Amino acid sequence: YYTVEPIKLGTKVTPGSVVRTGADAKLRIVYKNGDQVTVGPATSYQVIVGAKKTEDEKSSVKLMYGAIRSVIAKDGPRSG
After folding, report:
1. Which residue, 10, 15, 5, 3, is CA-closest to 61?
2. pTM for the whole thing?
């Protein structure tokens, strides 16, 4: 058993957090470097942030169901 608290503006989402939106809700996660992820209605998305130690080791996302859209900052660390 667990409870789901509504996310308020300014809430910090930590690595490993699972974000779920209702059928009539959506959410935008904005990272410090300007990258943005919009989480669509009726979506479950896990925030996974990996510290890139080697060229083969990359960050990833986990979308359980629904839709997400990412906007990557042109000059950010993932600009390539």
Report:
1. 15
2. 0.69
